[in-house]
Amino acid sequence: MTTINKDNNKEMFPIVDEEGNIISAASRGECHNGSKLLHPVVHLHIFNSKGDIYLQKRPEWKDIQPGKWDTAVGGHIDLGESVEMALHRETLEELGISDFTAERLPHYVFESERERELVFPHRCTYDNAITPSPETDGGRFWSMKEIHDNMGKGVFTPNFESEFVQLFGK
């Protein structure tokens, strides 16, 4: 029996205010249908000691930005989960990494045509093995030159591009 990967539109997310206080809950489908219900997510930017940044490739089956390169780790915070719990769960699920120390960066609201997210970005330096899961289409480290050369060309997700510039400059 073959299983087709796809996002679970019935998965429940907390709905929050701009400081992260939970005000209600809604399904993934409701959050991604243009409703602009603000829901929290975590991001982890992984650098190696040479200063390169690891990006994951989003699978073609994702409901948002399929096939584009994105932040190393990105995921929704589940109902009842803290930012730190979600960060560690998503990093283990997506890249097989459990032994990292992350620095929390300032949170912000990201809005696209389909959704609004309260993003809690983090960064870390990591030089050990990374094992991407089937939740991704793999990944690799990119030099800063490669990042700059590919900005604005449709290679990266708009969220990654705006966050990269906001957090790390051009």
List segments where confidence is low: pLDDT < 50 over at least 5 consecutive residues.
Answer: none
What best-fitting shape do the alpha-carbon axes yield? globular
Instruction: Tally the helices.
Output: 4
Largest sheet: 8 strands, mixed
The CATH homologous superfamily is named: Nucleoside Triphosphate Pyrophosphohydrolase
What pattern of helices and strands is seen along the backbone?
A: EEHEEEEHEEEEHH
**If classified by CATH, what would the architecture be?**
Alpha-Beta Complex
Gyration radius from CA atoms, angstroms: 15 Å
CATH level-3 fold name: Nucleoside Triphosphate Pyrophosphohydrolase
CATH class equals Alpha Beta
In total, how many domains does the architecture comprise?
Answer: 1
In total, the number of strands is 10
Structural class: alpha+beta
Task: Note the gap between the termini.
Answer: 47 Å
Overall mean pLDDT stands at 92
The percent range for strand residues is 25-35%
Please give the share of residues in helix: 10-25%
List the helices and strands and how they pair.
Layout (H helix, E strand, L loop, with lengths): L11 E5 L5 E6 H4 L6 E10 L5 E5 L11 E3 L1 E4 L6 H13 L7 E2 L3 E4 L4 E10 L13 E4 L1 H7 L7 H11 L2
Parallel strand pairs: 3-9
Antiparallel strand pairs: 1-2, 3-4, 3-6, 4-5, 4-10, 7-9, 8-9
Description:
21% of the residues lie in helices and 31% in strands. It is of the alpha+beta class and 170 residues long. The protein has a single domain (12-162), classed as Alpha-Beta Complex (Nucleoside Triphosphate Pyrophosphohydrolase), CATH 3.90.79.10. The strands form two sheets. Strands 3, 4, 5, 6, 7, 8, 9 and 10 form an eight-stranded mixed sheet that branches. The chain has a two-stranded antiparallel sheet with strand order 1-2. A hairpin with a 5-residue loop joins strand 3 (38-47) and strand 4. The longest helix has 13 residues, at 83-95. The chain is globular, with a radius of gyration of 15 Å.
